[in-house]
Fold this protein.
Amino acid sequence: MALLEDDEVRAALGGLDGWEMEGGEIVREVRFEGFRAAIAFVVRVAFEAEAADHHPDIDIRWARVRLALSTHSQGGITMGDIEMARTIDALVP
């Protein structure tokens, strides 16, 4: 997959919920009512990411989950990251 230009990333983020561009990745933080809900969400993300063979970096802080996507093999953001962000958005309760 080809790297996206910054303006292409910004345009794609307009159709996503809560994602922002930070350097060479897109990030989103999701808050939950507690640790169990956060972990359940991460498990759902993990199954989808494994099926797509496109894995986000995930940081869990009790009831807060931070996700970061970039295509490491390409050194930046590709349509694969945008597509995985859409998949993740669909999992947010």
